[in-house]
Structure formats: C-alpha cells, structure tokens
Amino acid sequence: MSCTKNKAAATIMGISFPKNTMRDCSAIIEQAIEQDKQELFHVITGNPEIVMASQKDEQLRTIIQQAGLVTADGIGVVMVSRLRRQRLPERVTGCDLLLELLAAGNRNRWSVYLLGADEETNRGAAEAILKMYPHIRVAGRHHGYFKPEEDGRIVQEIATAQPDILAVALGAPNAERWIHKYRSQLHAKVAMGVGGTLDVIAGTVPRAPMIWRRMNLEWLYRLIHQPSRWRRQLMLPRFAVRALLHRERENIT
Question: Which terminus of the chain, N or C, has less C-beta within 10 A?
C-alpha cells in the first residue's frame, strides 16, 4: 500500500502522481527503510516513457498502481500537470532521488545493491559510491547483461545481501517489471528503477550542468551528447499532446 495514499495528486493519463517535492520523497523512502517492514517498498520514477507504455500495458498499469511511491520524473510530466491546473511542485528524477538517498544512506549507514548497466559501468559506480559516501555499504552488485535463466541466482544473491536500497538500471519499464516480478523474494527494503544513473555516477555519461537542469533543459543536453537518443525524444511531444487531450476517468491510488 502506498505511503502517499492521502496525498493530493495530479492525474496524468490515468497515472496518479502525488504532489511531492524531492524532500518529501526522500523522507517517505527513509521512513520505509527505517520501519524495517517485510514488504518491499517499490519506488517508480514515472517518466513520459513509462506513462505512455502503461496506456497499452495493463500489467504495467497494475505495477504502477501497487507501487509504494510514484514520482514525477521529467519536466514533461510536470508541465502537463501545470497546464491541466493540477500543478506538481517539481520534478523528482531517478538520478536526483538516488543521489539524495545515497547521501541519506551515508548518514544512516545504509546498504545498497547495484543491478544493471555493463560490468565496467556497474563496477565504476560502486567504486564511486564508496569514495563519495564512505559510510554506505555496497552489499553487492551485478551487471545488467544477464539471461532470464540467471534471474534465480541473482535474486538469491540480492536476498542474501538484504540491501536497504536496490537500484535497478535495466531501463524503463524493464526495471519496474523485474522488481515487481521478484518483489516477494528480493528481501530488500526499497527498490527503484534508476535508468542511466549508474552511468552518471560512474562518470561514463556526463550529467547536465546545474544551469541546464534549472532551465529544465537536461533532455536537450543529453540529446546533444547522445545523438542516438533522438528517436526516444520524439516521444516527448507525442506524450504532451496525448496527455493534454486525455480525459481522465478516475484516479489510480
């Protein structure tokens, strides 16, 4: 059950986004970790790609519905909410949220397991985390290039590690599906898909400078540095048009 059930929310294409700031989200997740419940707390960073995919994928909509927390990952989601006069306060990206949680984890001596990206990036991210956050314990890690028949071994490895935070970089919505499929077996306290965040932490992909982020142009900065993303970026105007024209029937809570 979501910790944000009674929180005012914006509804975009049937997906409910609680009106949380980054500080709110961090506090909610910290509470979930400190409560030490048996049930995994699934965090979904809801970007336009996930929202669009959920329109034709009932299973994905159910996964979002059952998540402990959904954040507004992307300026597109925030802008649509404001044009629809539902006004989300700010974007809460997977990258920023994971960095916020790592800082909190450093204070609280949490553990983290890193799943995803290629081996070099995964290892580099683990090393960078240990350097930047010396009080965090990297409970384990595994690259993202594994076959479905290897799932059982990896799930068991995570379950044995029992991390406070499981960061899954398998791409959206694959990460969300993977977490949901094994949520009862992972024995992690919190799990979230983190997109390309491990690449940023490892330094293999540059993060947009703060001025670009403040201007909500991080997507443009990434496109300039990764031109191969142009096909994915074409989805953004389609999302905006569909979201603005969409007639909401009922909120997902």
Answer: N
